[in-house]
Amino acid sequence: MNDELKALVRTIPDFPKPGIQFRDITTLMLDRVGLARTVDALAATVDGKVDLVAAVEARGFAIGGALAVKLGAGLLLIRKDGKLPGATIAEDYALEYGTDRLTMHVDACAPGARVLIVDDLLATGGTALAAARLVRRAGADLVGARFIVDLPELGGAKALRDAGIPAESLFNFEGH
């Protein structure tokens, strides 16, 4: 089934800059059967109770909301800097093509909450590691991270494992 889902992801060369092969999941999300199977497949990788799904802006929101409903969990939004009202905590991180900052509300999750991070794609792991630092700073129990796509050559899965974060993806794409 994962090969069928992988076939629904289009590749856009040289975006956002030359040499990057952008893996665009919006085509997968347009397919109602593919979207439902993606959510089911991600949910099947989760063992035990999850209190919150921490979805990373922006494509992580779409898949994270659906996964949270499937898991009977709440949805914690991890946003880019300046997007959340109220008091926030922030973490800077490196992308494969630059730097950025993630934030979440200081009261978004209670200490001890079981939190699963979800995003569409795992590249260098910088975004997921920043999200993990935010969740851990709030005192939550980070149970893992889930992705639709992994780009294994960029080392994100290893970086997450090295940080003690169990990570799974539905399928890989070779290259950048």
From TrEMBL:
InterPro entries: Ade_phspho_trans, Adenine_PRTase, PRTase-like, PRTase_dom. This is Adenine phosphoribosyltransferase. It catalyses: AMP + diphosphate = 5-phospho-alpha-D-ribose 1-diphosphate + adenine. The gene is apt. Residues 46-150 form the Phosphoribosyltransferase domain. Pathway: Purine metabolism; AMP biosynthesis via salvage pathway; AMP from adenine: step 1/1. Homodimer. Catalyzes a salvage reaction resulting in the formation of AMP, that is energically less costly than de novo synthesis. HAMAP family: Aden_phosphoribosyltr. SUPFAM superfamilies: PRTase-like (SSF53271).
